[in-house]
């Protein structure tokens, strides 16, 4: 409609503009009349009025449409806002539902933990009650033991006092007896001195009598010698008895030492078996009875010694009285009958009797000393036994007192723990709602973080997969392009070989041009073969790039110049004036030098070769060598250019059809060489792009691995952070640690610790390996520690090792051994 209105407006404007057109000539007649002009003006006014009316209506319609569009847009925006609000409300409702579900799960876990804590509290209360009952039992047992120990101590003290009184009385009696024995010994010594005086008198009498009769003297001497021999025998027997007594004394001392060692071992055994009070009391009673028996034996021994001393004293007194009477009678007989023959025999008998009396006195004194020593030894043994028994009783009393104090301390600790547990339970009951709210907030925060991390991870994974797919497609395309280039390179090489063959065939008809042309062609072929062999030896056949061409060019140029001068001289000497042939020879010789033939060619070929530097050819040759495993000969384009120049020289030297074909083949050869150089450059560029893409792929893979590792670390850190702020988890960890230290089952509790502390697979595997290593030496190490801290008898050690399947050396055995 707008276009129609515009067209109508343009028509009206044209109609209105027609009267105002260019003025007609004055001589042209007027075709319009004033009425027609007036009609046209009215028509124009009417049309203008209609145009304004149409414009107004169009504007009104446009405004109405714009208002309708604006209203529709506003309605759509309102609907969109409502839809977005409803979507936000739905998402918030879903989040609230998830949070409510999580809170319900958390509340269930808290309820279960609460029940678990209540159960633990009940068990702790039961343990405290059992500990209190055990403490009361310990207290009653300790009081009973203390009372029994006090009674035993009082009994032992009374017995000790009684034994001390008895020992003092025995000592006093023994001292009195010793004083009596000393007095008796003194009296016996006096009597002995008197007897010695009497013997001296008798000897003098015997000597006086011996002077009277020699036979009697000899008999008296013989009797005296026999008496001396008897005295020596008696002395030997006395010494033997003394040695026997000393040996018996040493044996008694050894027995006492053994008895003391046995008593010490018994005391150690009593200290080890501290709970066997009745057996110890029986042993103490036995020791007391042994001491009483020893004292009784000592008393009996002292009584026996006293009886023996009294007997010895009575016999000595009777003997002394008898001897006194005999001495008196002997004196009377000696005084009455001094010259009697029996005086010598009487003197000898008196001497023997005197010696017997002396021996008897010595025996009595020795027996008294031995009895006194035995009594003192028995008394010291009894005192030591009493002191050891008293010390053992004191140690036992101290042990029971220590056990009572430890039991009281343990009961106090249990009561304190119970109070702390009750306080914790009350605190948890009071702060349960706050903990639930805090847990909900932390769960929401953690879920948001996890969602962000998962979104980032999914985005990175999508980018990585897209980049990987793009890289794979690009690599496939590059591989296909490289294969095409390699195939093209092979085709070009085949075409080059064909061109070389054609050029060799085309150069054959040129032998008749001059005498030096065949030699130059042969020399060119030989140089080409030598160059090919040298290229195969140095770089092409070995798969390496020819890099020494640039260094060999000056030497080759010098050789070429020398060869050129020699050929010119030969040509001048042979032909004599032919100036064109040396130029041909010169061209042929110039083509044999690689890298310089194109410089003598036309401007186009020289310009193309100058655009490709020799280093680029070397790089291209190296890239193609790395792709197909065989490097092309260096200076291929230069050789092609030299061949082209040679063909042009031949064309200038000869005008035959063979020369034209050779020139065409050389031009095709140059074109193929240029295509080969372009293919090399393209291949090198593709190879560089391929390496860059490989590096980018490796970098993307490393970034992906690092991102995954960082995501795992972040998740593990979030889990540890959530678990670090959880007080219930710490309590659970503490209970698990207590269970580990009580039972020692590290292998069974490893999954629990792995769940609590969020162990990785490598850490859990390392823990299992270390547990397997420590499993063999765990029992031996624990037993060694137990043996160091507390004395454990070998039977208990063997029993523990037997139940672990180990021998006493800590080695595993297939069959159980019997300790």
From TrEMBL:
- What is the protein's given name? GRIP domain-containing protein
Using the record for this protein, list the coiled-coil segments as residue ranges, or answer none.
340-392, 436-488, 669-720
Membrane-related topology note: Peripheral membrane protein
Query: What subcellular locations does the record give?
Result: Cytoplasm; Endomembrane system
GO cellular component annotations, sorted alphabetically? Golgi apparatus
Q: Where is this region: Disordered?
A: 1-40, 201-242, 507-619
List the Pfam families.
GRIP (PF01465)
Listed PROSITE patterns: GRIP
Origin, by domain of life?
Answer: Eukaryota
- Where in the sequence does UniProt note compositional bias of the Polar residues kind? 580-589
Q: Could you tell me the keywords of this UniProt record?
A: Coiled coil, Cytoplasm, Membrane
Question: GRIP domain location, by residue?
Answer: 723-770
Q: Locate the compositionally biased regions of type Low complexity.
A: 1-10, 23-34, 204-221, 520-538, 553-573
InterPro entries linked = Golgi-autophagy_related, GRIP_dom
């Amino acid at each position: 409609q707008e276009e129609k209105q515009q067209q109508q407006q343009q028509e009206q404007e044209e109609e209105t503009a027609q009267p105002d057109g260019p003025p007609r000539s004055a001589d042209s007649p007027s075709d319009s009349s004033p009425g027609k002009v007036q009609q046209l003006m009215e028509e124009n006014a009417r049309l203008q009025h209609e145009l304004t009316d149409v414009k107004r209506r169009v504007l009104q319609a446009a405004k109405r449409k714009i208002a309708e569009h604006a209203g529709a847009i506003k309605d759509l925006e309102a609907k969109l806002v409502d839809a977005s609000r409803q979507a936000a409300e739905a998402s918030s409702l879903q989040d609230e539902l998830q949070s409510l579900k999580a809170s319900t799960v958390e509340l269930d876990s808290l309820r279960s933990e609460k029940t678990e804590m209540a159960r633990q509290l009940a068990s702790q209360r039961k343990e405290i009650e059992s500990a209190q009952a055990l403490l009361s039992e310990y207290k009653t047992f300790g009081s009973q033991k203390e009372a029994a120990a006090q009674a035993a101590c009082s009994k032992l003290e009374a017995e000790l006092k009684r034994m001390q009184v008895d020992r003092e009385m025995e000592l006093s009696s023994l001292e009195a007896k010793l004083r009596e024995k000393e007095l008796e010994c003194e009296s016996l010594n006096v009597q002995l001195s008197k007897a010695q005086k009497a013997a001296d008198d008798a000897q003098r009498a015997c000597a006086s009598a011996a002077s009277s009769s020699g036979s009697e003297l000899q008999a008296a001497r013989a009797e005296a010698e026999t008496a001396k021999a008897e005295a020596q025998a008696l002395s030997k027997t006395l010494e033997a008895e003394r040695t026997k007594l000393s040996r018996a004394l040493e044996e008694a001392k050894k027995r006492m030492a053994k008895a003391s060692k046995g008593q010490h071992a018994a005391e150690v055994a009593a200290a080890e078996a501290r709970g066997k009070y009745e057996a110890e009391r029986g042993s103490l009673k036995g020791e007391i009875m042994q001491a009483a028996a020893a004292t009784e034996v000592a008393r009996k021994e002292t009584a026996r010694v006293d009886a023996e001393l009294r007997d010895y004293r009575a016999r000595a007194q009777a003997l002394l009285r008898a001897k006194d009477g005999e001495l008196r009678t002997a004196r009377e007989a000696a005084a009455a009958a001094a010259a009697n023959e029996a005086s010598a025999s009487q003197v000898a008998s008196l001497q023997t009797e005197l010696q017997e009396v002396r021996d008897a006195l010595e025996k009595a004194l020795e027996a008294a000393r031995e009895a006194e020593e035995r009594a003192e030894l028995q008394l010291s043994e009894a005192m030591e036994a009493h002191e050891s028994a008293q010390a053992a009783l004191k140690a036992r009393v101290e042990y029971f007192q220590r056990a009572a104090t430890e039991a009281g301390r343990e009961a106090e600790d249990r009561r304190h723990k119970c109070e702390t547990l009750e306080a914790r339970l009350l605190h948890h009951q009071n702060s349960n709602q706050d903990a639930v709210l805090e847990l909900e907030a932390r769960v929401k925060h953690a879920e948001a973080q996890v969602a962000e991390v998962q979104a980032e991870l999914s985005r990175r994974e999508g980018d990585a997969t897209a980049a990987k797919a793009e890289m794979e497609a690009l690599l496939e395309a590059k591989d296909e392009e490289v294969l095409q280039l390699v195939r093209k390179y092979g085709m070009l090489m085949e075409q080059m070989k064909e061109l070389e063959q054609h050029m060799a065939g085309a150069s054959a008809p040129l032998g008749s041009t001059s005498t030096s042309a065949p030699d130059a062609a042969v020399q060119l072929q030989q140089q080409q073969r030598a160059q090919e062999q040298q290229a195969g030896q140095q770089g092409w056949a070995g798969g390496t790039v020819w890099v020494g061409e640039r260094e060999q060019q000056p030497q080759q140029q010098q050789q070429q110049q020398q060869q050129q001068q020699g050929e010119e001289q030969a040509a001048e000497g042979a032909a004599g004036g032919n100036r064109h042939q040396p130029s041909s020879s010169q061209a042929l010789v110039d083509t044999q030098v690689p890298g310089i033939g194109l410089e003598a060619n036309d401007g186009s070929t020289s310009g193309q070769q100058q655009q490709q530097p020799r280093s680029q050819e070397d790089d291209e040759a190296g890239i193609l060598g790395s792709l197909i495993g065989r490097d092309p000969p260096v200076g291929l384009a230069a050789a092609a250019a030299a061949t082209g120049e040679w063909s042009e020289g031949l064309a200038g030297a000869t005008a035959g059809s063979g020369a034209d074909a050779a020139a065409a083949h050389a031009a095709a050869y140059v074109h193929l060489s240029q295509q080969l150089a372009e293919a090399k450059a393209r291949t090198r560029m593709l190879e560089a792009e391929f390496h860059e893409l490989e590096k980018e792929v490796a970098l993307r893979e490393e970034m992906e691995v690092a991102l995954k590792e960082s995501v795992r670390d972040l998740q593990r850190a979030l889990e540890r952070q959530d678990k670090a702020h959880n007080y219930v988890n710490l309590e659970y960890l503490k209970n698990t640690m207590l269970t580990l230290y009580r039972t020692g089952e590290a292998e069974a509790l490893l999954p629990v610790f792995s769940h609590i502390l969020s162990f990785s697979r490598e850490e859990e595997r390392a823990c299992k390996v270390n547990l397997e290593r420590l499993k063999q030496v765990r029992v031996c190490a624990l037993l060694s520690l137990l043996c160091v801290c507390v004395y454990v008898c070998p039977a208990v050690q063997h029993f523990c090792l037997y139940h672990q399947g180990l021998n006493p050396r800590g080695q595993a055995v297939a069959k159980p051994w019997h300790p």
